[in-house]
Amino acid sequence: MTEPHDLTALAQAAAIAAGEWTSRALVEHHLNRVAALGDTVGAFVTVTADAALAAADAADAVPVSARGPLHGVPTAIKDLTLTAGVRTTFGSAAFADFVPPVDADVVRFIRTAGLVSLGKTTTSELGCSLYSEGLVAPPARNPWNLAYTAGGSSGGAAAAVAAGLLPVAQGSDGGGSLRIPASMCGLVGYKPSRGVVSGGPVGFGAYGLPTSGPIGRTVADVAALLDVLSQPVPGEPYLAPPPPPAGGWLAAARGAAPGRLRIGRFTTPMLADESVHPDCVAAVDRAAALLTAAGHEVVEVPPPLTPTTWPLFEIVWYVLALAPVPPERESQLLPLTRLLRARGAEVSAASLTATLGELQAQVRLGAHRTAGCDLLLCPTLAAPQAPVGWFTEVGDPAEDFDRQRRFSPYCAIFNVTGDPSVSLPVGVTADGLPVGVLLSGRQGADARLLATAAQLEQLSGGWDRHPAIWRAPDSANVNTTSGVGESSA
């Protein structure tokens, strides 16, 4: 029997519009799943049940003619994203009681579009790491196998969507933070082009690396949420690319095939001299074969950037860790965060300026290397999965940070270039765990990237697969240390 959480986000909205479900009924259903499984998968830091039910009632009162494509659908906000009146910890014990007075622009857009937030999803401390294991919430675990991390820094969002606690969620990506957890959890994680989504109303743009974006089970759901997030806002530090075609990003994903494209394929890591797991290469091979069969020209190309980029990127990452923290609370930060901040404090203004200039020079060279390609195809990660606690097990934050570099040597490059990039769950390991591939486009060409991602989804036979926990009636029936989930339709 079909359960409400079996429906995609767009199908849930359609059911609300048709009178088959109310927003309140869907929100109650998902809140029950959050209560049963939320801590098991480490999805939420804060659940706002009362506010969600009130928002659902308000959504149900809106005339059908005034509703958008995702009206009334449950979602959640990443705990790095300012949410007025709701505890927002930034994944840190240092901010365990912080309640912002203002909404981020994307939160305002989500509310205006009629989506209903169930709360704040787990993230890494200050967004600094690619796993979500802090002190303010249980670690974000992969619903396909709870012994493994759900990734980060949007790990809670990925865990929630993959476990059926939400159909779609907001996240952010400064170095792979949407695409990494999407790859691990068998989801679609989309980093839009620089400037597509506002980072306001506060902040300086963070050198163009981070952006909010959607994570979901299907390309169409992700495109629909991107339509919600990508509203123009005056005063943004980066010029927005051309707007989407008529009908928005969802229309681009659902529209005609993108035509014959030249797609550059590579598997050589870009931020580390690291061997790549055969399952990650196999996923790229499968994607390349499907795209070739669809009529695209897939060619081998050198990676746009190389490990020489890493010393530059890490300097910027150190500086970005210098978010304002009350001095008396610095001791409450995790060892990795303290290490990054200590290194960032040693970077002079002159050194940072020179680093940013050299990074831009490398971006230009990379663009020339791949100038003949419409899209680029590569692995999302150098290995499919990592156990919870693996990055921190040696007790050395420097080793922790280096393990992250070697585990994820692809994603961050596209934060540096500002190009749109999406992780797609094309592959699977012998144990049945998801393996993502990264498809990336030219800056501003999000419509083409979404159309190609939707085409690859269709060629793959669809990606809306679910782990065994999807059917678990309560957390008591879930093994928290092992038990690979089996796919269910």
TrEMBL record:
It holds the Pfam family Amidase. Residues 26-450 form the Amidase domain. Gene3D superfamilies: Amidase signature (AS) domain. It comes from the Bacteria. GO terms for molecular function: catalytic activity. Coiled coil: none annotated. SUPFAM superfamilies: Amidase signature (AS) enzymes. InterPro entries: Amidase (IPR000120), Amidase_CS (IPR020556), Amidase_dom (IPR023631), AS_sf (IPR036928). Belongs to the amidase family. PANTHER family: GLUTAMYL-TRNA(GLN) AMIDOTRANSFERASE SUBUNIT A, MITOCHONDRIAL, TRANSAMIDASE. This is Amidase. It comes from Salinispora arenicola. The lineage of its organism: Bacteria, Bacillati, Actinomycetota, Actinomycetes, Micromonosporales.
